[in-house]
Amino acid sequence: MLRRAKCAVVRLQQRALYMGETAKYAVLSVMGPHAGEEEEEIFLRKRTDIIKCGQTFWLIRSHSAKPDMVQSLCLAAAKAGCTPVCLFVEPSTHGGAVPTKSSRAASEYSPDLTTWQHLPVGLSPVTGHITPGVCALVFDHLMIDEAKRIDLWDYSDFFDSKQPVIFRQGVSTVCGVAGNTRSNPRRMKSNVRRVVAVGVLKKPYAVWLR
């Protein structure tokens, strides 16, 4: 059983790495510490969720990546024959991402704010600052990929292809699509980032929590 589980993780890693390297449609998210957990602890817990439950939920708070927005990107990706991914990238400076201080657990999720369901049995706690409007991305593959770098100038805003992707306070997660924004004066200065991890988005792709 353990050997099968390890093999499954390897297959998921290989697929996720490939998806990350060829990602045309991507949610880009700055990775930061969460309620006292280190990166390795978080990813181990989330990857265990995938093995046990077939999916995991990753809490985010960003004005530019609400569930309906992420769902729009993922549907466009599916229509184009692409697999949407989330690329977790390092902050522009060490300690640049503010740690999440709250660790209250969510109990229900909804893809549309109308129908609510209990989080899957066996899923590890989905914790954070659980307030109205808080969201989560849904993955069925997740891997750590510390050797990879991406150039943010290779992505434009999914909702306005003439604009670059931009991280700022309150917007640590954005929806991007492949596009050259090198000549845009609003482009981010710290454009080359290490990829901390790659997650493959699974229907319903993103949900609200409570």
How would you sum up this structure in a few lines?
Helices cover 23% and strands 33% of the residues.
Key features of this structure:
two-stranded antiparallel sheet; alpha+beta; 210 residues; 3 helices; 13 strands; 11-stranded mixed beta sheet; single chain
Mean pLDDT: 87
Q: How far apart are the first and last residues' alpha carbons, in Å?
A: 35 Å
Structural class by helix and strand composition: alpha+beta
User: How many strands, what sense, and barrel or not for the largest sheet?
Assistant: 11 strands, mixed
Q: Give the amount of beta strand, in percent.
A: 25-35%
Residue runs with pLDDT of under 50 for 5 or more positions: 1-14, 16-20
The Rg value, from CA coordinates, equals: 16 Å
Explain what this protein looks like in three dimensions:
This protein is of the alpha+beta class and 210 residues long. The protein has one domain. Helix content is 23%, strand content 33%. The chain is built from three helices and 13 strands; from the N terminus they run αβαβαβββββββββββ. Strands 1, 2, 3, 5, 6, 8, 9, 10, 11, 12 and 13 form an eleven-stranded mixed sheet that branches. A hairpin with a 2-residue loop joins β10 (155-157) and β11 (160-164). The longest helix has 20 residues, at 2-21. The chain is globular, with a radius of gyration of 16 Å.
